[in-house]
Every structure is written in structure tokens, then in C-alpha cells.
Structures
1.
Amino acid sequence: MIVGKFPNLRPRRLRKNENIRRLVRETRITLDDLIYPIFVRYGENIVEEVPSMPGVYRYSVDKVADAVKEVRDLGIPAVILFGIPEHKDEVGSDTWSEEGIIQQALRKIKSEVPDIYVITDVCFCEYTSHGHCGVLHDHEVDNDLTLENLKKQVVSHAENGADMVAPSGMMDGMVKAIREALDEAGFKHIPIMAYSAKFASAFYGPFRDAAESAPAFGDRRSYQMDPANSREALKEVLMDIEEGADIVMVKPALAYLDIISKVKENVLVPVCAYNVSGEYSLIKAAGRLGWVDEKRVMWETLLSIKRAGADMIITYFAKDVANMINKGEV
Ligand code: PBG
């Protein structure tokens, strides 16, 4: 590739002022890129801040519609729901109960805010007494037994109004099982966003506080991916597409920008990146200490995720970003 050379070329010419910088800017963050995570919990009249995630709240069902309205009014197209049930059990049966926390939240949101796109996180760790992402057998998550329960969970989500389901448990064959279950139940039109390359990451720490989903023993390394692996991430992504994933996800985002970029170059489906809780909390904490400029670091982080190839970003910063965009600060 010939680029030319100095003094004929002076790249600074195209950086002279904001107008020319706008014209040559290659990557943009818009409202269209954003998905906002919402935590719904049992109880009534509750809006409580997550201690390790300033600015992020857990809402009881009676409060969740207002929270979603705020997101909709900011111009954000979608939310993804996480549930904290009142009762946990060995298998996480709240996930397919008609009175489950997500089912209640879906009905509430769909009746009061019908014009926002609602994605449900599909997993078991917040719902099981042991905190693992499926059914245990000899202290191990049993893959195929878990698939059976995943089918019940997604059908129940779809029946209660979910627009899209997002399985995050990293079970082998989960996308195939879910696609078949949805199709059989008459939900052929409901897409699947697969957490395809989900790594066993320490960046999920604050989320596990928020969702009360830390495993009671052991860790998730027998199902989530080894952070050291890149080709395996592509294998997971390609397998999920083969099984019927409409959108694939890389998670976390920031320490995995190379994976996002690699996935984007190798697939034809949209790529989502999850800017996870720990990534959020690090920036919030340093911002509060006055050690970094929180807004600018946030913007630069999201830009890097977009530039790496993400078509959409799940981020706890979505409302902050939307406010900045709407106020013309960026
Ligand atoms: C699993 C799930 C997790 C996150 C999203 N879905 C936690 C985990 O795997 O332990 C983490 C999200 C975040 O850290 O923001 N249901």
C-alpha cells in the first residue's frame, strides 16, 4: 500500500479543527449502538443502587417500567433484563415459572412501555442456590440436563413478551436447543443473541454483587472460556452461528478487543460486545477519585469497542452516553 511521504503528506492537515476532524472521523457512537442492562428484583417499591456500580440500580417490578421509560425517552433502542428472584433452588425453577421475576417484569414492561426492545438474559446462576449456570451433577454443571431447562426458560420468556433471548451460560449446544424449542412453541420470529465467546473473567465481579450470582463453590472455568484463547473464541462463534445464532457476542469487551475484531472479520452476522460491570466500575471509581476524566475515558472506551468491530454494545454507560449525545456534548 502506498501512502506517500513527508513533506508531501502532512497528516496534521486533516486534524486542524473540529469541522475537518468530523469529516474524516471513521467511527461514531450513536444511540443506535446501545443496549442498557436492567436488574429486576423481588420485593416492592425498591430502587436501590448497586454499591459497587454507582449509578446502576436494582428495581422491583412495580418500579421497573419507570426505569425503562427513562431509557426509552433517552432514545436508547433496547434493554436487557437480569432477574434476582425471591427464592432460589437447585435447578433455578424461577426461570420458567409464570410468576418468575423476569416473567413479571416482561409483562409490566410490555404493557407500559411497548415501544422498547426487550432482550432477556437467559441463564441460571442468579436463580440457583449454588450459583452455577445450570443443573449440578456430582458438583459439575451437567450440560445436557441444563439444555432441557434452558428450553423451558426461553419459551416462557417468549410467551411473556421477550423480543429476543440471549443465552449466557456457555453450555454446548445451547443455541440449537433454544432455536428448536422456540420454533416448536411457535416463536420462529424471536431471534437469539448468543453470548458465544464469553470468558471466565474477573471483570464480572460487580455484576455478581448486583445479581447475587457468585458461585457458592468453585468457579465457572469448566464452562466459560479461558481468557488466553482466541482461536477457540472463533470456534465457539462459528458453532453458534451454525446452530442458529442471529447475533453473536463477545464478553467482556475491553480486555478482548482483539477477539471482537477477529470475530467481526470472520462472520456475517452482527456482533455485540458486552462492556461488563468491572469495566464500568473501574472507570467510575477512578473518575470519582479524580484520577481520570470519567466522561472522556468512558467515551474513548466505547469508541474502542466500536472501532474493534462491535455493531452494538451492552453497557451500563448507555444512559450517560445518551445524555452526552442528546446534550450535544459530543
Ligand atoms: C450470567 C451473566 C453474567 C454476566 C452477564 N450474564 C455473570 C457471570 O457469568 O458470572 C456479567 C455481566 C457483567 O459483569 O456486567 N447470567
Note: The CA atoms of residues 117 and 138 lie 39 Å apart.
2.
Amino acid sequence: MNKKTIENIELKNKRVIVRVDFNVPLDENQNITDDTRIVESLPTINKIIADGGKAILMSHLGRPKGKVNLKYSLKPAAARLSELINKEVKFAPDCIGDETKKIVNSLQSGDVLLLENLRFYDNEEKNDPEFAKKLSELGDVYVNDAFGSAHRAHASTEGITKYISIAVAGLLMEKELNYLGQAVTNPKRPYCAILGGAKISGKIDVINNLFGKVDTLIIGGGMAFTFYKAKGYEIGSSLLEEEKVELAKEILKKAETSKIKFILPVDVVVANEFKNESPSQVVAVDKMPADKMGLDIGPETIKLFSSEIMKSNTIVWNGPMGVFEFDNFEKGTFAIAEALVDATSKGAITVVGGGDSAAAIAKAGLEKKVSHVSTGGGASLEFLEGKILPGVAALNNK
Ligand code: AMP
């Protein structure tokens, strides 16, 4: 990686302002239902404490739309972090202002402070320079450890770097960039990408970019049905993006002349309706009944996809193969997760994009058995599109 990291700078007695991603899900009583994002940021926070820096953490949570709304307060995250690091975590009820400055200036070496939700100000998402400058005044050095927000040029991810000369990556950010970076720029071949999920629309740029990079491109999930429609197959009431059929035709044409293997499912599990309990059956993709919908890939497809995965040395997976949220239609997605685990144990580099694929592999209980599960859904997709993430570009080069 060509960016400086927290390992390359002096932290002792420094006010280290860190953009973390504590955008954790909360229930109606503001209990954190999944603390993965906080846990993932611990290596960076613990390093700052161990090196005698003062950790000033900032994050967004939810979409408070530029207004103070305590439903989106980060206070529960401070309490959870305190339990995880077994140490007091101070909390500032505002992310800027004189009071916050006072709290920051009272910090001792090794202290940890979490600021209130950045998005209580709409200036954050607008990347307002004045707001970015105010944030910058709270730190001597800046660390970005929020990979999940790095694809957005916001005040806390990009604007702030204009006012602090030392701006480096945290350890989580470094890990994300190393895994995704290797997959994108220097993959061990054969390189296989598996895309799934509901829609082609969010993944067109990824498909196009991967055409030039991968050896094998596998498409599953709901987005496969738009390709079948393009091939003229009956798809019943399966998910369809009518306005993307032409595009799917173009992609299929490109696949015919390209050197890469472009693979679609060969069989599907169809159901009468979009319900877990709906009776289901397996049919070949060109034999779908008009009154049914496809909710998962079938057993022959699982065999086909798994064998391609096992032949590969780098595998990137983004998007479930079916409606994995329904226990009766999770099989295809879980089988792909299992294949990734097998490939990992044989030495392949396996990377799972964030978002739904991360949720799926966690539901399968296999998240620790692949090389890397990204914490950023949108950010990992943009990375695979070949885009430069503004929050990364803004950091100091080595
Ligand atoms: P995305 O956000 O585009 O990655 O889509 C993820 C969603 O796609 C998940 O909630 C899955 O339930 C859904 N999905 C995957 N396969 C299908 C399918 N065959 N029919 C309907 N939804 C699907």
C-alpha cells in the first residue's frame, strides 16, 4: 500500500483525531445489536493508547439528516467501546465547539474520547470547509480508519485532511486496502469474482471493470434473472429490471467475445411466492414455470460455482446467491460461503464484500474462515469498480 499508516507516525502525547465507523445497528431501546464495527476498530484504538497518544474518535451513525436527534446518539457506542477496552471512554455531547475543545484539551496521554454524531450537522456530508477546519482543530494528527465511509468525500473523511498535514490510514483501513488492493491490482491467478444480490443496476460498473481483470466472472442471485430475460427465457415472477435487459444483452455479447469465463446459474429453486414457507422445486433455468419465482440457485449450479471457486487462487464475492434471509432459500448462498472457506484452507485469498454478503457469511457462521470480510459494502464495490476512494486518496503517501 502506498499510503502512510499509523505505524509510520509519532503518537506519544499527540491528540490523534480518528475517523472511525461506529455506524452500528441499534434496537428501539438503543441497544447495539451488532458491535462488529466497534470491534474492528480496536487495533487502531489500542495502538494509540499503548503508544501514549490521546484518542479522539469521531463517526456518523444513521441518517439524522443534519439535525440533533438523540435517537442517533453515539453514546451507546462509547459505553460498548469502554467495555471492550476495559477503560473509561469519555463522551463529548457535540463534535465541534468550545465545550468539545475544552474536553479535548483536558485529555491525558492514553485517554479515549468519542465525539457525538458528525451528521448532527449537515456540513459533514456537504464537506463544508469551515466545519472540516473545526474538526481539524481537535487533533494534531489525523487517522482514517473508516473504510466503510472512505468512498464519500465528507468533512471527516476528506475535508479535514486539508487542515492537518499528517493524515494517515488506521490499521483496519490498511487491512481493507491490502486485501482489496491485492485482489484488484495484483491478484494471484486464476482470479474469480462472484456477484449476486438483487440488482444489476448497482453493479454494472463493477461488472464492466471486472471484465478487464478477472479470469472468471460468476453471476448469481436475483440479478441473474435479468440476464435470462435477455436470453429470451421465461422467468415467471422472478426479480427483473426491465430497463436493464438491453444492458444485460450487451454484457452477454461482450462475454461471448471476451477471454474470460462468464458463468450464470444452470438451475434455480423456484417458489410460488416470496415467502419462506412457500413450496419450492428445482428447475433448469430454461424451464422456469411462468407462475413461479426463482429464490435461490439450484444444486447443479452450486456444484458448478464451487468447482470454479476451487480452481481459483483469488476469489472476491459480493452479493448473495438467493434470498438468504429466508432459511429455506439460504442453501445456495451458504454453499458459496463454504466453497470460499475450502478455497481459503487450500491457500486461496478470499475476500467477501461488505453489506449483504457480510451478513450472509455471518449467518452461516463462517466469517472467520475466509481471508477477509470487508466492513464497507459501498466502499468495497467502488473499489472493485476501480475507483479511487476520496477518503483514501486524501491520505499521505509513503
Ligand atoms: P444487493 O443489495 O443488490 O446486494 O441485494 C441483496 C439482496 O438480494 C438480499 O436481501 C437478497 O435477499 C436479495 N436476493 C438475492 N437473490 C434474490 C432472488 N433470487 N430474488 C429476490 N431477491 C434476491
Note: The mean pLDDT is 96.
3.
Amino acid sequence: MPTQVLKPSQIGIAAALLRQGECVAFPTETVYGLGANALDEEAIVKIFIAKGRPEDNPLIIHCHNRSQLTDLVTGWSPQAEILMDTFWPGPLTLVLPKKPAVPDIVTGGLATVALRFPSHPVAINLLQAADLPIAAPSANISGRPSPTSAQHVLEDMSGKIAAIVDGGPTGGGVESTVLDCTVFPFRILRPGGITYEELSPLVPVEMGYEPHSDTPRAPGMKYRHYSPNTRVVLITGSKVEGEIERQVKACQAQGEKVALMAFTESATYPDAYILDMGSKTDVNVAASRIYHLLRQGDTLGFDVIIIEGLPEVGIGRTIMDRLRKASDTIVHT
Ligand code: TXA
Ligand code: MG
């Protein structure tokens, strides 16, 4: 199937395709999503096939007004309402108890459903025009870095989906925070665009994911995600700079073509191609660039990308979560 590339002004065509049960990729403020009608099981199957996604991994449903929620979930607490009032529209996904109307294929058979209101104007226009709850995972092949431009989506999805709305680069760069609101304190299942530091003054929250999984895993058992084909080495800890130099030299001595993904301030190593994460003084820039830079490993044909780790606070926690999962090797200094 040829994939139509639509302009934001052609949102009516995209909405009609969604209503006909097709998959359409669209920009959000985090990453591009691969959307389909959340209430149409056949349409949802197309998402899983296009991505090669395991069927037990549930999808996020995207809405544009709160009255849509009452068809999808049995209810929510006043604390969850505070978060909706504060962070929607925006990169926060809330997990709530689902109603039977939500097909099991969307939720991987769970009794809960993940919901968010995106803030990207193109996403809002599309959701309004389709007037449907839209299930949308990130629009990458499962395991690859998430797409932050239409070009990235086409690399992975061209010929597999009906259309993409090209709204330019997304801006935020890392996915939404997934927060389980069916337990109290609420649990962060995936760190994302809204940080622990922003949530915790408003409601009690706990980390519900494994933040430091540096321990070597059994070969073949490693969970790899957000990954290019290029080998990825992440350097963490307090002596990152010296270790970067050592690693770059060691890889070059093996004859490998090395890229160094680092902050502008540290990107002074000779002989390594620099994938610039922007200034250390604004890690939001790094957030907006990491997936593009990881994809560059493949498009520019590097053997290895060596990455400068960053402090795990605020959005840095989210970036490091993604970089750890993208890495083949994590060197802690
Ligand atoms: O920013 C985003 O969240 C992007 C844009 C497109 O909205 N979407 C996205 O979707 O990242 P995806 O499918 O790549 O990631 C959804 C995450 C997965 O880790 C999934 O396991 C989790 O949300 N999730 C979905 N439903 C869940 C549920 N009922 N309970 C727990 N986790 C859930
Ligand atoms: Mg994803």
C-alpha cells in the first residue's frame, strides 16, 4: 500500500481514513504516533502488524475532550483530576480502570486503559476531525528509536500504513510519562515528558519502574528498545569524561567507525564524529534530539555510538531511561 504523505491542511483526509478503519501516523508534542480507531478491533490489528509489536504490550488511547473518557473508563479520583487539570493537554498518560467497551486488544487484556490528551495542534485537529478515541503507539517498528520526524516514520512505515500527516519535527522528543492511577500512591510506570519533580508536589507518586538496570544481563535475555542497529555504549557515573576518551580510542584501535553522542561542551574529542546533544545547560534540547541521533548511527553507517550519560534528575531521568534501554553496554565509572 503506498503511504500518502498529507499536509496538516489535509487533516480531513486523515480523519476520513481513521474513520474507515485505516492506520494514520500523526505528530504529537512527544513523538509521532501510529493512530487507529480504538473501538475498531480490525483497525487495531493493523497497528500491531505494521509495528511488529508483541500483542501483550498495551496501547495508549488519545482523546481531545473529557466527555470521551466516560465511555472508556469507570471513573477517576480527585487526585487524578488534579493531574488532568494541570497537565492536559500534554505528555502525561494516566492508567485508569477500563470499561468493557474498550477492546481487549487495545489493553493487552488488562483491566486498565492508558489515556492521554496530546497538546500538538495537528494531533488536536485530527482527534477533533475524526471525533474518535484514537489508540496510538509510537510510529516506529517495535524496538527501533521512536520517530520524531515524518522522515523517521517513513523509514519504518512506508508502504505499511495508509497515511502520515507531516507536521514537521515534534519538539518534545521523549514519550509521555505513564502514571498508574489505579494504585495509591500513584506509580510512574514509564518516566516521560512530565517529570517526577513536577508530579510529586501535587500528588503522592512512587517510581514503579527499574531506574538503574546496569547489572549485566544473561546473553539473549537483554531487553533492548529504542535501538539502532549500530552498537551503543553508554558511559555513566562521575568520571564520564576520561572514560569517553578511553572508549573512543579503544574502538578506533579496533578499526571501528566511531560516533560520539555528547553535549556541546564535552564534544571536543578529536577523530570521533560528533552527534551533538546540545548544551548541558538545557537538557530539553537533548530530549528532543536523542532518537534522531540514535537513528543517525544507522543512516550514517557507524559501527558504534559512544554516549555521554547525564545526571538523573528531571527530564534527565527520562533521557537516561531511554539511553539505558538503547544500549548494548553500560559502563559505570
Ligand atoms: O508520548 C507518547 O506516549 C507516545 C505518543 C504517540 O502519544 N505514545 C507512546 O506509545 O509512547 P507506546 O505504545 O510506544 O508506549 C505506551 C506505553 C507502553 O510502555 C505500554 O506498555 C504502556 O504505555 N501502557 C499502555 N497501556 C497500559 C496499561 N493499561 N497499563 C500499564 N501500561 C500501559
Ligand atoms: Mg514506543
Note: Residues 28, 30-31, 33, 57-60, 91, 93, 95, 107, 110, 112-114, 118, 136-138, 175-176, 178, 189-190 surround threonylcarbamoyladenylate (ligand 1) (CB under 6 Å).
